[in-house]
Structure formats: C-alpha cells, structure tokens
Amino acid sequence: MKIHKSLLALALYMSLFLSGCSNEPDTESNYKDVIASEKTLPADFNEIAFVRETGPMFEYMVNKTVNSSEFEETWDLYGFESKRPSVNFDEKDVFFIGVYESGSCPYKIQKIELSSDNKTMTVPLPAPEGNCTADATPRTFVIQVDKETSEKIENVVIVQSGYETRVPIE
After folding, report:
1. pTM metric for this prediction
2. Do residues 39 and 105 lie in contact, with contact meaning Cβ atoms separated by under 8 Å?
3. What residues contact residue 109 under an 8 Å CB cut-off, 6+ apart?
4. β-strands 120-125, 155-160: how paired?
5. Which of 27, 6, 9 is nearest to 17 (CA)?
6. Rounded to whole angstroms, how far apart are CA atoms 69 and 76?
7. Segments forming the whole domain that contains residue 49
C-alpha cells in the first residue's frame, strides 16, 4: 500500500511539473496585437538570422507580411503548429519576430513603441523575473499592425537585456 501511495504522489507531482512544459501554442501576452506566439523558429534560423555585430551575439529574424498568401507562407516557414489566426489584410499587416529565450522564463511582449514619425518600431523584451535557465529556446511572436502605420515602418529595434539591436525587415 505504501508503494502505491508513493507512486501516486510521484505521478501527481510529475503531471503538475510537466504540465508547464507542453508544446501547446502560447498566445498569452499583455499586448493586444500579439495574435500568436509559439516556441518555434524556421528550421534554418541559425543560418539566416540577423546576428548582432558586437556582443552579446543575439540572433533575430523579422518578417513582414502584407497579404494572406505571404502570411500563410511565412507561418509555415516558422513552423507554427497551431491554427493560423484570421487577419484582415485590408486593414492590417503582420510582423513575425523570431528570438531565442530562456526555456524557463519565456518573453511576453507588453508593449510596442513607435517613433514619432512611425519609421521605427521598438519591441522591448522585458527581463524575466526569477531564476531562469541559461538555455536558448525558440520563440516567435506574430504581431498585427495597422496597415497605414506599417507602411511607414523602416526599422525594427529589439531591446533585449538592455541592448538595442536594429534588425532589417525581410
């Protein structure tokens, strides 16, 4: 009987522990225009990603889509497993932003900042709280932006760990 209770307790503990480690889509964000977020990146990300010229050598990828066929193609490129969200491309454009994050402390975009002339979009990745592992796991955010604003955006600046990186838009 003691063995059964121990195994039951262990099974319960493991199910609670592992429930936070699923591959389910994570759309949680405090920023309303993040329409999808998932632990995925293109298969060849390390070969095609933009790398900072000076340390730390963060890698990023930013893609902009302006119609449904580009959106579908880019969604597949990034390897999303969840269903594609519906986007009204008459009113919105979509940016895919690929990064690496700690496996235990995922990023959540809380706001996007636009320069006064709307030419630069700044994406702050807030420092995670708590004890985070130093591993690098994939994360892609899918953000919709009003088409009128998006047409003016020439630069995307990602702020990670206090470092600003200007990333070209693909």
Report:
1. 0.81
2. no
3. 29, 30, 31, 34, 37, 123, 124, 125, 141, 143
4. parallel
5. 9
6. 11
7. 23-167
Q: Which of 27, 39, 56 is nearest to 159 (CA)?
A: 56
- CA 161/CA 109 separation, integer angstroms: 14
State the first-to-last Cα distance of the chain, in angstroms, to the nearest integer: 62
Instruction: Determine the pLDDT at residue 107.
Output: 93
Amino acid (1-letter code) at residue 47: E
- Number of domains forming the structure of the chain: 1
- 12 part of a folded domain: no
Please check whether residue 102 lies inside any domain of the structure. yes
> What does the pLDDT profile of the chain (170 residues) look like in tens digits?
444 333 333 333 333 333 333 333 343 444 679 999 999 999 999 999 999 999 999 999 999 999 999 999 999 999 999 999 999 999 999 999 999 999 999 999 989 999 999 999 999 998 877 899 989 999 999 999 999 999 999 999 999 999 999 999 98
- Specify whether the CB–CB gap between 102 and 127 falls below 8 A: no
Contact 41, 138 (CB under 8 A): yes
For 125-159, what is each residue's pLDDT tens digit? 988 778 999 899 999 999 999 999 999 999 999 99
Task: Decide if 51 contacts 98 (C-beta within 8 A).
Answer: no
